[in-house]
Design goal:
By secondary structure, the protein is α+β, with helices and mostly antiparallel strands. Helices cover 46% and strands 19% of the residues.
């Protein structure tokens, strides 16, 4: 079958779109020691979304707010945005280098509701009030900005 220029263009656009999706995804953390070192080196707080694969609100929060924040580049010097997936069977290296279940780590932060946003310093301590759930999307960015500002001030004061 002969390919037409429009099919080639469609394939190119699909490929570019797929690679753009990869770049915009919120990175899932598996090694919190490495994340702590990155945060320490850059003197930035971590905005951690605690999520689950079957959580529709988690997906909405990521696609409507967190991924656009990452794409904009406006937050590159203010916060590291990462995800902790607490699905059964997920494990991580915690801030002390211990292998544990992601659910246990989330429990340490009392993050039983997904999504929960945590604002952490490079040592893993909370430095701003957590945000549970994803309600009032029209006001939500204000709460996230407030959390980032407080966390950044705390990290820079250390």
């Amino acid at each position: 079958m002969k390919s037409t220029p429009l099919i080639g263009l469609a394939l190119l656009l699909t490929t570019l779109s797929a690679s753009a999706d990869i770049d915009r995804k919120v990175p899932v953390v598996h090694d919190f020691r490495a994340l702590a070192e990155e945060a320490r080196t850059q003197r930035l707080p971590v905005l951690l979304i605690v999520s689950q694969s079957d959580c529709g609100y988690c997906e909405r929060l990521k696609s409507e707010l967190l991924e656009p924040m990452r794409i904009s580049g406006d937050y590159d010097q203010r916060v590291l945005i990462r995800e902790l997936n607490i699905d059964a069977g997920e494990s991580v290296l915690d801030f002390n280098g211990l292998r544990r279940s992601a659910q246990d780590l989330a429990s340490d932060y009392r993050a039983w509701v997904t999504p929960t946003l945590l604002f952490l310093n490079p040592a893993g301590a909370q430095v701003s009030e957590r945000i549970r759930g994803y309600n009032t999307p029209e006001l939500f960015p204000w709460y996230v900005e407030k959390g980032i500002d407080e966390a950044l001030k705390s990290v820079r004061a250390e």
